[in-house]
Each structure stands twice: as C-alpha cells, then as structure tokens.
C-alpha cells in the first residue's frame, strides 16, 4: 500500500506539524506570546523597518507616487517565509498612505459572500490586508479578480436558474496580500498585483539592529556582543530574534542583574538548547542520526524519521528546510545526505570516501 494514500491529508498534516511547532523556540510561526508582544515591537513606518532594502525602496516609490497623484496605491503582494515582516509591512503601507486598514485572511473567507461583505464596506483608499491569500476558496478568489481589476463585484441574488447577478461598484482600495507560498497562487491572481515584494531572510547585522531596537522598546540593557550572539542564532528571522531576546532577558533577570552580554546570551540559549547556528534539539537529533547512524547518508526520509522517533512530516517540514538552507543537509534522489559542514558543526569526523559508506544504501 502506498503510504501517501493512507497517511494524513494535507490539512491533517499541517495540523500535526503545527502542534509539533508549538513548543519550539526557533519556529518562525507566531505563538500566543508573540502575538501579544509583537504589536508593541512592530516598526510603524518604512524608516523604522530594518533591512529588506530592495522591497523597501521599491515600495517607497510606489507609495510616494500614489500619494503625489492623490491616488490609491496599486495592489501589493508580499511573499516570504513566516516571521519576516509581511504583516508589519502591510500596516506600514496603510500608515504611509494615511489610510485605514482592514485585516482578514484567506482561511477566514469561506464563501464569496464573506468577501463581498468585506469589499462592499470598504472606504475609499482603505487598505485591505488579506493574509494567507493562497488559502482563499476558489469562488472568493474569482470574485477578488474582478474587484481588484474593475473595483466591482457581482453579488448573486437568488438560487438556481432564477439567480441574478447584481453588479456593485466598489470604492478604489489597495489590496495587500501576504503569502508564505507564492508558488501556490494562481497566475491570474498573481498578475493582478501591481507590485510584488519578496521578503528575504535577514543578515546577522540586520538582526542585530532588530534586537537593539526591540531591547530599547522592552527596556532591556544589551551590549553589542550580546546582541550579535542572539542574532547569529535567529535563523535570519526577526520574529525568532525577538523571541530569543525575550527568553535571554528572562535568564538575565533571574540569574544576573538583568543586563545582557555575550556570556549571559550564551548561557541562556544553552538552557533553551538553541545552538550557535540556531539549531535546536530536533534539528540536531536529525543531523546526529544522519551522521552517527547512517554515516552521513544517503538514507531515506522514513528511516531517518524512525531513527529520531518523529513523524516523517515533522522531519521533512519542520527540521529539514532550515538544515538544507544552512547547507548542512542535502535532499538527493537517493536519500538524505549530510554535507561536510554538518560533520564539522556536530564536531564529528567524516569517514573516508566522503561519508558515502555502503551502510547508507539501506534506507535509500
Ligand atoms: N524589518 C523588520 N524590522 C524590525 N522588526 C521586524 C521586521 N520584520 C519583522 N519584524 C518583527 O518580527 C515580528 C514578526 O513580523 P510579522 O508578524 O510582520 O511577520 P509575518 O511575515 O507577517 O509572519 P507570518 O508569515 O507568520 O504572518 C514582528 O513583531 C516585528 O516586530
Ligand atoms: Mg503575518
């Protein structure tokens, strides 16, 4: 039997993975605590927004030009991994345009009627932020095409053969769509955005600036090396940087005088098992199994998952993306393979022949 046919479907899988992510300090998704404090840490205008130079510069032009023309800004699509600042940027767009913002998300719009209700209540120039836009229902998506292009929706009245479409004019508005999966957007939708900003991972020095800024807002004293230490472990993601900062602050308050320096940051992140490159226990378990049990691979995903006592999905979707991004692990047609950097990172010595021992063929 094919595992894929009997395994959980995509939604169940996402749920499984979500649960698994909940207790991870280095997960880029927002947890309850993040949501509560993020509002306070969000930059309020483009100047305060750290990094993303290209997107910022391009967006600045789009917005300034619209303001100068006294027009509503073009629709904006923001794509990028979780925690890189899409929601933040959408709020900045509204602020820069001196416009109100309405916030909703793809999963919240089940029926086209839900979207019609939102669209028809927009004010002129309002920013509509549609988070997770790739998760909208098909009929809503089609309604959105027309709304974006012609500022018009057809409201269907009645059912069956007697149903009639009543066209409804909409005031001009700016749609800001956000997605972590730009590839899942149907091309007709993607094409209707006047501007698409791809958010990149942040450099360590950009994250240092994020950390210093947040520390100021949280009223925490932190020195340059302490901030660098946290930045280096934040996986290129401001949300993780802010979260690690809060955990290090806890440690500094309980174990020291509240000030954060390199020593405090290191000791705190040791307690939370986030290593110098930002790998946590799960990441290291996967990498450790690959190296110690399978000689660096190649080994199949299922075998690797069993070896670390995790679900396949957890290994594939939670641990691997970052390991691949860091150049520690490669996915090959024959299975998972560790890179020389992985051996070095775990302080192990690779066997001769580049680690492609015969034992690796078992799981492939
Ligand atoms: N460029 C930035 N400068 C400073 N802080 C930032 C920046 N980008 C993001 N942050 C901080 O990171 C946190 C997460 O950002 P945000 O919620 O905008 O991410 P997101 O891309 O919308 O994530 P998700 O995909 O999970 O919705 C915010 O609290 C914000 O303070
Ligand atoms: Mg968001």
Automatic annotation (TrEMBL):
ATP binds at residues 41-42, 83, 86-88, 149-151, 192, 202, 239. This is Holliday junction branch migration complex subunit RuvB. Residues 203-273 are annotated as: Small ATPAse domain (RuvB-S). HAMAP family: DNA_HJ_migration_RuvB. DNA binds at residues 312, 331, 336. GO terms for molecular function: ATP binding; four-way junction DNA binding; four-way junction helicase activity; hydrolase activity. Keywords: ATP-binding, Cytoplasm, DNA damage, DNA recombination, DNA repair, DNA-binding, Helicase, Hydrolase, Nucleotide-binding.
